[in-house]
Amino acid sequence: MSEPLLDVRNLSVTFHTARGPVQAVKNVSWSIKKGEVLAILGESGSGKSVSASAVMDLIDCPPGEITTGEIFYRGKNLLTMGRTERRHINGKKIAMIFQDPLSHLNPVYKVGWQIEETMVIHGTSRAEARAETLRLLAKVGIPEPKAAAQKYPHQFSGGQRQRLMIAMALALRPDVLIADEPTTALDVTVQAQILALLEELQRETGMALLIITHDLGVVAEIAHRVVVMN
Ligand SMILES: Nc1ncnc2c1ncn2[C@@H]1O[C@H](COP(=O)(O)OP(=O)(O)O)[C@@H](O)[C@H]1O
Ligand SMILES: [Mg+2]
């Protein structure tokens, strides 16, 4: 049996607020292996996003605090390793997409440049990054990639913006993709298209896909295994 790529054990997160501590996540454990599609299902407020944010190092501390637990990536504890090593893993090996692409795409830069920049920061040459961006745009189903690369985020529909964020997340070829309610804000037809795209990309790349949702339909459609959070 293969080892899990990502292994969250006994994770607890508390926010220290003006009205006292809020325990957002309490003793949560889950793991995901290479090639697996895991769904985290749970009602709103059950701690799905906060636990994923803990994996990505996106919790503001303070007010947030990880009070218990470990998060292992390929057997290494993300919570105790050095900043540089962690940033390499969270920037490159584990990627995340969100419900609202507009808050994660910069409105003042052309989308092609934004995707290129992800790769350039990690050492790819500008020319190579540009070519790869066009390939990625085609792969996620953006028509006329060359023209699309020259546009700004507001010039795309909601479903297309979600495709752009997926392209950006895939640019560094992560081996885990965390998708936090990636289809919740979209209409039903577009939801189905985005799910089909994620499933296809997962199969093609062999990456692990963690999909966070409150939608049982999504789970039935693509998950190999389900974790329910209360
Ligand atoms: N920055 C924060 N400060 C205080 N409480 C927070 C903060 N972020 C999240 N929470 C609380 O943590 C709990 C879990 O939130 P979240 O993980 O976003 O739920 P969901 O399962 O809907 O994604 C909720 O009760 C939420 O109000
Ligand atoms: Mg959430």
Give short descriptive properties of this protein.
binds magnesium ion; Rossmann fold; single chain; 230 residues; alpha/beta; 9 strands; 8 helices; binds adenosine-5'-diphosphate
Describe the structure.
The protein is an alpha/beta fold and 230 residues long. The protein has one domain (6-229): Rossmann fold. Helices cover 38% and strands 27% of the residues. It contains eight helices and nine strands. The chain has helices at 48-56, 83-93, 111-121, 126-139, 145-149, 158-170, 188-205, 216-222; strands at 6-17, 20-32, 37-42, 64-73, 76-77, 94-97, 176-180, 208-213, 225-229. Helix 4 crosses helix 6 (158-170) and helix 6 packs parallel to helix 7. It is globular and about 50 Å long. The structure holds adenosine-5'-diphosphate and magnesium ion. Residues 48-49, 180-181 line the site of magnesium ion.
Briefly, what is this?
The chain has 230 residues and is of the alpha/beta class.
Structural class: alpha/beta
Strand content: 25-35%
CATH C-level? Alpha Beta
Radius of gyration over all CA atoms, rounded: 18 Å
Approximate helicity band: 25-40%
CATH architecture level-2 label = 3-Layer(aba) Sandwich
Rough shape? Answer: globular
Report the sheet with the most strands, covering strand number, pairing sense and barrel closure.
Answer: 5 strands, parallel
Listed once per kind, the bound small molecules are: adenosine-5'-diphosphate, magnesium ion
Strand line-up in the sheet with most strands: 6-7-8-3-9
In CATH, what is the homologous superfamily? Answer: P-loop containing nucleotide triphosphate hydrolases
User: Number of helical segments?
Assistant: 8
- The figure for the number of domains is 1
The first-to-last residue Cα distance is 29 Å
